[in-house]
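Predicting holo structure, nicotinamide-adenine-dinucleotide bound.
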Amino acid sequence: MCYSSSVPTTKLFINGKFVESKSSEWLDIHNPATNEVIARVPKATQEEMLAAVDSCSQSYHSWSETSILARQQIFLRYQQLIKDNIKELARSITLEQGKTLADAEGDVFRGLQVVEHTCSITSLMLGETLPSITKDMDTYTYRLPIGVCAGIAPFNFPAMIPLWMFPMGMVCGNTYLLKPSERVPACTMLLAKMLQDAGMPDGTLNIIHGQHDAVNFICDHPAIKAISFVGSNQAGEYIYERGSKNGKRVQSNMGAKNHGVVMPDANKETTLNQLVGAAFGAAGQRCMALSTAILVGEARSWLPELVDRAKALRVNAGDQAGVDVGPLISPQAKERVNSLIQSGVDEGAQLLLDGRNVKVQGYENGNFVGPTIICNVTPQMKCYTEEIFGPVLVVLEAESLDDAISLVNNNPYGNGTAIFTTNGATARKYTHKVDVGQVSVCGPMCVRTLHLYSKTCTQQPLFSMGIQFYTQIKTVTSQWKAEDSTMKTPAVSMPT
Ligand code: NAD
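Done. C-alpha cells:
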C-alpha cells in the first residue's frame, strides 16, 4: 500500500522514547465523521514487541522498589496534567473515535477519577496484622506488585479504559505493557507523554500497536504476569483462555446487553429522558448503554413519546455545535448495525424510528446511523440476542415485574440493568431478584465507580478489584522470643 508522507504515523513508546516502527504492515486510522485517513498505526514487529517487554522487565526491579510515596507523587502530578489538558485529549478522541466533544471530555474525566484514586495508594496497599497469634508471635501481610502487567484496550473509550489499566497497575509497583485499540491510539500516546512529563521513569510504561499478533504476543510472553482486557466477547474469551493457559492472571471485561425496566408508576418525564440519553449517547457505543427497554403494563403507552424524544436528538460530526449523536467507528460497524436493524424487521419486529438513512450535511461519507427504536421485539430475535453496539433501542413488553425479571435473567449478558419506578418495594424486589452485577434504581447506569465481569454476571468494584488484581499478598509470621523464653528442646508435635 502506498501512503502519502503527509499522513502522520503513530509511534511506539519503548524505553522512554517515542519511536517510529520499522514494520512493513500499517493500518489506516479514519475520522469516523468523514472516513478520511488521518493517521497510520503500525503492527509492531516481533523485535519491537520484545524490546518493549524487555524494557518493562528491566525497569521492574527499580520501580517496584521505588518508595510508595515517590510513586504517589508522580500520580499526583499526573492527575493535574490530565486536568490541564482535558480539552486536547478530548479533541484527539473526537477526531479518531467520533464521539461528541462533550462526551469525549466525560471519557477523560472518568479515567481521571481512576488516576485520582491511585493517589490514595498509601492506604490502598495496606496489609493486615494480627498480633500475638501465639506467644511472642505476630503475623502480618504485605501487598506486593506482581511484575510486568499488560493491558489490551477497546476503541470505545480511548481515555477511560487505558486509564483503568496502567495507572493502577503501575502505582502498585508493576511495570506495564499497553496495547491500545489500533483504531484509536492517539489519546493513549498523549496520556503516555503526560505520564513521562509527570516523572515516570523510562521503561516503566511501554506501548505497542497491532492486532492479533500483538495480542498473541502478550498472551504468550513468559515475563508478563497479568493481562487486563476490555472489549468484545469474541476477543475476551480467546484472551482469557490463551492467557490463563500460560499461567497468567487474566481479567476479561466483555460485551453487554443492558436492560432498563420501566414500571408504569415511574416519573415519566425523567424516565424517558434517561432512557434516551443512555440508549443513544455515544451513538450507543458504550458497554453501559441501556440498549434494551422493557415496558411494563401501562408504561407500554409511553412509546410514542419515547420516539419523539429520540427523534429530537441531533446527529452530526462530534466536533459540531449542538450535536447529540456522532458517527459509528467504521463503515463496517455501520453496516453491521444496519443489518441487525433489518434482521428485527425480517423477524417481525416493528421499526418505530429508523435511523438508517440519516443524512448529515457536509459529512455525507461519515458512518452515521440515527437513533432507532424497534418494538414488538421477542427474546428469540437476533436484534435481542446480539449486542448491537449502535444507537438502537430494542423494546420488549411485560405484563408484570416478575415477567420483566425473568426476561432479564434469561439473557446471557449482564453488565448492568436499571429499574425506573417510584415504589420502593418494587425497586427492592428488582434489585434482589435480578441476576445482574450492577443495578441502578431510577437512573441510567454509569461507569463512574463500577466495572464488571459481564459474562458471569458477577460484579467487582473496579478500584478495589484493581488493587487486588495488580498485587499479590505475602504473609509473614515472626516470633521474637524474649531472652528468658529460649527453647530448650525441639517441638516436634503440632501445638494444640
Ligand atoms: P474488540 O474486542 O474488537 O477489540 C478489543 C481489543 O482486542 C483491541 O485491542 C483489539 O486489537 C483486540 N482484538 C480484537 N479482536 C480480537 C481477536 N479476535 N483476537 C484477539 N484480539 C482481538 O472490541 P472493540 O470493538 O474495540 O470494543 C467494543 C466492545 O467492547 C463491545 O463489545 C463492548 O461491550 C465492549 N466493552 C466492554 C466493557 C466492559 O467493561 N465490560 C467496556 C467497554 C467496552
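The first helix runs from residue 46 to 65.
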